[in-house]
């Protein structure tokens, strides 16, 4: 029996599936640069920062750009991405996410967002879930990307709990590693063969319950 006082949620792949919008925007940029970029390649960008995502795409195409050019390209991609997320609605919340957040709060368990995205506030506002998070830590607040645990440690600190009292929900391998390095429990959202390091792996938050949380 554990004493879980807080749940920290990744955004993309856990609360919503924004990977499809990231892919469309990166694909448009890759096409303009003459780089072959597939949905399979896009898997490598999940949970990875915007800057690192661009580096991966440039590496795929063996294309070199100056830091200034990279900045311009990342901004261009982000403008297209923001256009798409501005059209998001609550219908895009992944199954069980809203319900489990409400369950946590009703049970007195604190909630935080721990995302690599610098656009998390826009997304949470569009899908109408901002009010269900006690604190939001995202790409705007951290200097080190997952698997560094900074984003989750800052979340725990803001909530006034210690890492051992936290459970992280993550769909990316780097995020699962970050939670473990940070000394937290972690529930993988996805496939056991990919996220095997997590304490348990489930297909989505619709499979989560307080009973499972307390047994971690
Ligand atoms: P942005 P997460 C991550 O979100 C995405 O999985 C990743 O594909 C993206 O590059 C990253 O956010 C940065 O997003 O360009 O909006 O700052 O899974 O950490 O919630
Ligand atoms: Mg994710």
So what's the oligomer here?
single chain
Domains counted in the coordinates: how many? 2
* CATH C-level of the largest domain: Alpha Beta
What is the CATH superfamily classification of the largest domain?
HAD superfamily/HAD-like
How much helical structure, as a percent, in the residues?
A: 40-55%
Average of pLDDT: 96
Percent in strands: 5-15%
What is the architecture of the largest domain at the second tier of CATH? 3-Layer(aba) Sandwich
Annotation field: number of helices: 9
Overall structural class, as computed from helix and strand content, comes to alpha/beta
Number-wise, the strands total 6
**In what order do the strands lie side by side in the largest sheet?**
3-2-1-4-5-6
Give the termini separation.
Answer: 7 Å
Protein architecture, described:
The chain is α/β, with parallel strands linked by helices and 216 residues long. It contains nine helices and six strands. It has helices spanning 19-33, 39-42, 50-60, 67-85, 97-106, 120-127, 150-159, 173-181, 210-215; strands at residues 6-9, 110-114, 135-137, 166-170, 185-189, 200-202. A six-stranded parallel β-sheet has the order 3-2-1-4-5-6. Strand 2, helix 6 and strand 3 form a beta-alpha-beta unit. The model has no long low-confidence stretch (mean pLDDT 96). It binds 1,6-di-O-phosphono-beta-D-glucopyranose (B16) and magnesium ion. The site of 1,6-di-O-phosphono-beta-D-glucopyranose (B16) has 20 residues, from helix 3. Residues 10, 12-14, 46-47, 171-172, 175 line the site of magnesium ion (MG).
